[in-house]
Amino acid sequence: MNENHELKKMREGYGDAVIDLAQKDEKIVFVGADSGGHERKWFFENAKERLIETGIAEANSAVIAGALASDGFKPFVLNFAYLHARMYNQISQSIAEDNYPVRMAGYYAGIWGFGGRSHNCITDLAFMRALPNFNVFAAADYWEAKTLVKKVASLDAPSYIRLSGVPTPTVYDSEPEFSPFKKHLDGKDCTIFCHGTMVHEALQACLEEKMSVSVVNIPQIKPLPKEEIIHEAKTTGGAVVVEEHSYIGGLAESISSLLSENYPIPIKKICVDDIFPVSVRMEEENVYEKFGISRNQIKKAVKSIINKK
Question: Average model confidence (pLDDT) for the chain?
């Protein structure tokens, strides 16, 4: 793990990994819809024939990507997380139904962002998880974003990677090996399941408060690593699930459903309320506190679970 907590953008890790893969595989195509950064620039300067720009016709980008995948190409599609809802019908009919291996990614997922309450997306896991055939992932930092890009490149199925849009603290100091279940701390009283930005926040909570708590990163939201989660629940007997996402339809709801059917234990969800999050500035303090998902709320939830046990 990285103890320096350097701030880096997940989407830069995404772009670095896509470029690295595209340099080695001429079948990789980048499909943009007025989105993208240095990876789009790389394709424009080095492989213009493998760059397709649809402008703000986001739905068309999904259809084009599905067509490319049907012909043996390997399309990567990047856009704002919330815009995947705008192209949802096309994703369902042109990608998911025929199980075409299109690699999609959504950034500005979560409460951080500058585009207003329409752009800050806390519902993407809910609607992307609902698509049959889709694999769904969430990156904890810049380094894990690179790992997940390479993971989805190896899948013969459609996929979605969730990315924050702003610089976030690094959890790792290099690319980690892919695992759908990553235990960072090992305790006996409670398990904190988390993903994305909340991995760092959960680890900080445990540094600030002496607790015998396990911290588990779940970067693979679908399919869920069910056996590992159930085994962990049996080990500690209590769980807190933390995510920068609505409490509806994300990892918290998924784990709660899994354990209620297989090994019921006390569970508390630390998630964003059922709201449209307003924009926040980078210099604004206590943003996680404002939306109820800070390390302080995590500590309180853990104590609550331990008391219930």
Answer: 95
Decide whether 7-169 matches 182-308 in CATH topology.
yes
Please tell me the CATH code under which domain 182-308 is placed.
3.40.50.920
3-state DSSP assignment of residue 104: strand
The residue among 194, 191, 169 whose CA lies nearest residue 282 is: 169
> What residue segments make up the domains of the chain, in order of their start?
7-169, 182-308
Model pLDDT for residues 70-98, shown as the tens digit of each residue: 999 999 999 999 999 999 999 999 999 99
Question: Model pTM?
Answer: 0.96
Give backbone dihedrals phi and psi of 119, rounded to 5 degrees, phi first: -95, -30
Is CATH 3.30.70.3040 correct for 7-169?
no
pLDDT above 70: residue 301: yes
> For residue 111, which of 121, 125, 102, 103 has the smallest C-alpha distance?
121
> Dihedral (C-alpha) 61, 195, 238, 134: value to the nearest 10 degrees?
20
State the Cα–Cα distance between residues 210 and 197, nearest whole angstrom. Answer: 21
Could you report the per-residue pLDDT of 141-183, keeping only the tens digit for each? 999 999 999 999 999 999 999 999 889 999 999 999 999 999 9
- Element of type H or E holding 188: none
Handedness of CA 249, 250, 252, 254 (dihedral sign): positive
Taking the CB of residue 182, how many other CB atoms lie within 10 A of it? Answer: 22
**Residue carrying the six token digits 């588990």:** 216
**Residue 77 contacts residue 62 (beta carbons within 8 Å):** yes
User: What is the Cα–Cα distance from 100 to 87, expressed in whole angstroms?
Assistant: 16
